[in-house]
């Protein structure tokens, strides 16, 4: 090869590299723009959420260009250097590697990965940090997961009580201690961003501080670990209150009898029971019976649990009551244990359960 041809080939190589870099840069810019134009997350309602969202943005900026660059170079090479007719038996030019390139593509990813890990570790330490001790002992809520419901245990100034929905004061840090009774669950409030597994036999924990006042209101709680057939129903609600409203709520919870009495003076009617069957009791997280059970009188057609028109025929009130309060006591053939939430005894008042039992006994034994 003459010197002239040699420099010509080099110039062509350089042009190829330049084309590749330009295509890669344009594609990276488009990729980042796309990454930022999509609204990925719900509202960021804890003080920890902003740091986590920033971490996400940094990861998008760092990883999208690399993904796009690698993909573009691969596609570009496949098209540009594809085999043409007549080249079937040709071999490529012999290559001896390029030390400088190899050093770059080893060192650059290593530095990038170490930097991102360091940054992620700093964010993690930051969001797990305990609040300043000056504000007094931190609030701890013990959260217990079981198939398929959450229970929240409070200790407010030595007074203990449990709830089926979570209540928190805005602007104050809370530490969740997670427990599981049966299998692994995962406690997640998407608006707060953090989540952690609840594992039988060990206690896990994390902290959040709901923003004051942005977080005021209701937020979903979901189970983020596939834990059985009722996993999708393992939901609850966190109510973020102003500190004053929270204190009033605690007072109400600690002065009232802790049993889920609801203590309505009027006895519930059959129509009330039917409404409860169809719609559940959202304020205490009791899901609707009709969402899982078929019952002709209520017009429901759920298939998850037994058809009650058939299953409760000839059964007495005691059996029906036991089936609501302790669903695993008798399992209808063809169905599995642990599908029905075990906490209707807590999420429905005794008056509501009695009304449901009377209603079900009546309409299934016509
Ligand atoms: Cu508990 Cu999924």
List the helices and strands and how they pair.
Layout: H1 3-37, H2 47-80, H3 99-128, E1 139-146, E2 149-156, E3 159-163, E4 166-169, E5 174-180, E6 185-188, E7 195-198, E8 204-208, E9 217-223, E10 235-241, H4 243-255, H5 270-279, E11 294-295, E12 300-301, H6 308-311, H7 317-325, H8 344-347, H9 350-364
Parallel strand pairs: 1-5, 4-10
Antiparallel strand pairs: 1-2, 2-3, 5-8, 6-7, 6-9, 9-10, 11-12
The structure holds dinuclear copper ion.
Dinuclear copper ion (CUA) binds next to loops.
Note down, in words, how this protein is organized:
With 366 residues, this protein is an alpha+beta fold. The protein folds into three domains: 9-76 and 117-122, no CATH class; 137-258, Immunoglobulin-like, CATH 2.60.40.420; 261-363, Cytochrome c-like domain (Cytochrome Bc1 Complex, Chain D, domain 2), CATH 1.10.760. It has nine helices and twelve strands. The strands form three sheets. It has a five-stranded mixed beta sheet, with helices on one face. β6 and β7 form a beta hairpin. The site of dinuclear copper ion has 9 residues, from loops.
């Amino acid at each position: 090869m003459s010197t002239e041809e040699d420099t010509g080939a080099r110039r062509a190589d350089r042009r190829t590299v330049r084309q590749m870099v330009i295509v890669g840069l344009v594609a990276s810019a488009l990729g980042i723009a796309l990454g930022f134009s999509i609204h990925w997350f719900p509202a960021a309602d804890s003080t920890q959420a902003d740091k986590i969202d920033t971490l996400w943005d940094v990861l998008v900026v760092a990883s999208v260009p690399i993904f796009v660059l690698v993909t573009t170079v691969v596609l570009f090479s496949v098209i540009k250097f594809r085999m043409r007719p007549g080249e079937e038996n040709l071999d490529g030019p012999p290559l001896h590697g390029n030390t400088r390139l190899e050093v770059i593509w080893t060192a650059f990813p290593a530095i990038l990965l170490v930097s991102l890990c360091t940054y992620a570790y700093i964010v993690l330490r930051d969001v797990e940090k305990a609040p300043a001790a000056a504000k007094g002992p931190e609030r701890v809520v013990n959260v217990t997961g079981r198939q398929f419901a959450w229970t929240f245990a409070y200790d407010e100034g030595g007074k203990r009580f449990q709830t089926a929905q979570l209540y928190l004061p805005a602007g104050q840090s809370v530490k969740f201690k997670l427990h599981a009774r049966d299998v692994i669950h995962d406690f997640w409030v998407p608006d707060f961003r953090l989540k952690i597994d609840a594992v039988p036999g060990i206690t896990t924990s994390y902290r959040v501080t709901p923003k004051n006042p942005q977080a005021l209101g209701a937020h979903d709680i979901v189970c983020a670990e596939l834990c059985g057939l009722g996993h999708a129903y393992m939901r609850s609600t966190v109510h973020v209150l102003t500190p004053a409203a929270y204190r009033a709520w605690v007072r109400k919870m600690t002065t009232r009898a802790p049993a889920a009495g609801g203590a309505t003076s009027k006895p519930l009617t059959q129509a009330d029971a039917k409404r409860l069957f169809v719609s559940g009791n959202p304020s205490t997280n009791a899901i609707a019976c009709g969402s899982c059970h078929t019952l002709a009188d209520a017009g429901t057609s759920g298939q998850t649990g037994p058809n009650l028109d058939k299953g409760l025929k000839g059964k007495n009130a005691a059996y029906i009551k036991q089936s609501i309060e302790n669903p695993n006591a008798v399992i209808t053939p063809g169905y599995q244990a642990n599908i029905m939430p075990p906490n209707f005894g807590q999420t429905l008042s005794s008056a509501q359960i009695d009304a449901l039992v009377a209603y079900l006994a009546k309409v299934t034994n016509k």
